Amino acid sequence: MNARASHTILAAAVITALLLLAGEATAPLLYTAANTSTAAHADPATVPKESGKDADVLIPLMDDLLSETGTLTLNIKLKDYESAERDLARYAELSAQFDELVVTLDVSGNDIGEFQQNNQENLASLAALLNNTRRFEDLQRIEIEVQGDEGQGMAVVYEGEALRQKMQEGFAAYAEREATVTGIAGHYDLNATPYRESITNFAEIVNATEDQQEEVGGSANSPLEIAVIPDKGRYGDILSIAGAYTGGTAGTPIKVYVDSQIAGNASLDASGNYACSYQVNRTPTGLHLAYATAGTVYSTVTAFEVFPGETAITLAVESRTAVTCTGNLTTAEGRPVTGAPVLLRVDGTELVSTETDQNGTYTEEIALPAGEHTVRAEFDAVGYPLNASESLTETVIVQNEGLSPLPFIAAIAAALGSGWYLRRRHRPAEEPAAELPKTVSVEEESVAAPPQVEIAGLPPREAATVLFRTLRARLGLPDTKTPWDCVRLAPAHTGFFKRYEQIRYAGETPSEEELRAMEEEAVGGDQRAA
Amino acid sequence: MQREFWAVVLLLLLAAGAAYAHTTTTTEEFSRYNVGWNGTSGLAAGEVHDLRGLDPGTTLLILAPNRPFTAEEVGNLRTFLDDGGQILIADEEGNANRLLADLGSTMRVRPGNLASLDRDHADPGLFTVRVVGNDTLFAGVETFRVNRPATVTGGDPLLETSILTWDDGDGDGRPGSTEAFGTAVVCAKEGNLTVLGDPSLFINAMFAENPEFINNLQPVQIDAAHSRTGTVNPTINTLAWVRETPVATAALAALAILPVAYVFGRKRDA
Amino acid sequence: MTGAKKYYAAAVLAAWLIIVAFFMILNRTLDLEIFFVLSLIGLLVVAVLIDGAFSRPRHMRYIGYLIAAGVALFAYIVVEKILEILAA
Q1: What is the ipTM of this complex?
Q2: Range of the domain at B86
Q3: CATH fold of A227-306, please?
């Protein structure tokens, strides 16, 4: 195989290789082993490992939670409040652990999520039960102490009554959850007996308070009347709490209490009536008790009910530099829900919380990396007489900022820079080599006549070289003779050759006059020398 | 000049080697010629193309079948089962349900996207199952790792998942409101017929996960006519056919000898 | 043999490319950009080592252009990667 054939083959191979590579240039990462998986299986060597210990703890933890309810209610029933406090603390701790576990394992979607919600409500119920029972005991004690003081006695009775009603309600809610919780417990083979016992204990505790309250009795006639109109409401409704105080002086301040907490102030007008308005805002669903006081006179206790309402939450996403999410949270009647917490779920897991303003609108900007993302807004209605609602899931695509010109500019700059650098490195050696053939050919043309040499545009040392060659050619000496040889062969021009030797090999630069003299000598120095 | 000759020859050899490796391997799933992570090139098993006269001492593995079985083949399989041979059908797409019905079995494969929390890896489809039945296949094994299996209904259960398993219908990797937790059976048997809902156990990447199972499986033969272990690549099929047909192999060998003989013969004359 | 150095240089460069490709296959990641950068390094090292101070043989005459093109592409890759890191 001769050289030409092998060169052709190599050239063809290089071009083929370059073409194949150029085809892949836009996606330089040809293959990578990370995350290789198909619909049928995933490559376990490339899937990162994670410990499965969390999942093992889930079911035993649910068992623990159910058994805690039993011991807690038992201690409350036996009035062992220190142990009950400890149990409650332990129950709260376990519940917090369970909540964390549910978030870590991301299982809030199915019945484990339902169990978690019910458990949280149970925890709240049992904590309220403990507090209410203690308070009730205290009230019993106070009642005996203030025996004889009409005003304070009434206050105690009313508070007792309010407390009892609250505990009744609490028990109703707690018992309502029994079916769901035992159903879930059956699904996972949990021991639900302590839980059922807790319900029985709860019932006994509540019934005991009822018996105690009946013993006390109390006058239900009071000169101060109170009525809530209307006595049913939903979120946003304004209820009017009004009444008349027979025998009261105008201008008396009246305090209105809802659920044993002050809810409004009014003053008695000239006709002995008072009124104050109460807006249903963050009031939980269910029965609420209201009573009024005018100094030491207490009114009867009246109840009003708050019904739950449906809500609707909207979500609109816009993608500019960051993703802007806006939306409205309204009730089914179109009333905006103000100051409510809204959760934005990004890509199914990340949660960003925001709040609605006075008009029920919320706005939030989220920074997301490039690509496709899903966003959903959720309102979980805790503490509101409203049902939770979710918006539709919106997809937003965050664009890459297009192709930036910076890399191209850098590439061009680098090419120019390296080109300039390489040129510079080679130029000093290049120029004399390029010059020499030119002057020699000029020389050979005009050897007969007195040689015409052009040294006008040349640098001094190059000009000296040209002159030396001219002289050497004119003297008929071969091109291979060095200046020292020329000194020996043509002693007449020793000065010229020696000076040239210094210029050429010692790096000296001839002056203008020297050059002129050398030019004359080289062109027709014979006459002058002679 | 000599050097250039050798340089060119070396480069051409390298290119030819790369081209050979490129054309004789494939990236098809479950293929014997796929040396990547999702091929079955590492499974040491013989191939049978004909279901007649099978040796009852070996296990017949039908791996991810994608071609239907004719009535005659079903009859052959029935004879094989009655003679005491073991059949292991590994399928997760439901293609084997027809065969199971024809064989008179009550087991069916229900394709789905099983995911579980009881796992060691970040992928919810790659999880651990428990051995609940008694079978030589799973002797000495208590837990088993499966790779995105399907559920098997009917028969005596051999492999069962934990209770924290759900069928991920929407593919989001977490249990949703419609995806309830529950145990699922991944492998069941009826007599000599075992149905395994996960053919992914035989790919190269999964061999290290369940070594005792692969050992217990030997000796095994794969039904090449119906399993997905073949390939559509014509080069590989031609080479395989040549290797198996003695006439073609002999013809190829003769063709290879001729130029060598010609070169040496000519040299001696000169 | 005339130009033996040229062949040694080409052989060394080819061997370096094969080693780089071998390790990329071993690692199961084939990235063209990494391969290009490593081969450019090899080319630069070889060019510096065979460059004589006093002569410029024919096979070295146009290597300047090849190196300039390689450095331009390298600068493009580097700046693109920096922009990627800054944007993240």
Answers
A1: 0.74
A2: 46-223
A3: Immunoglobulin-like (2.60.40)
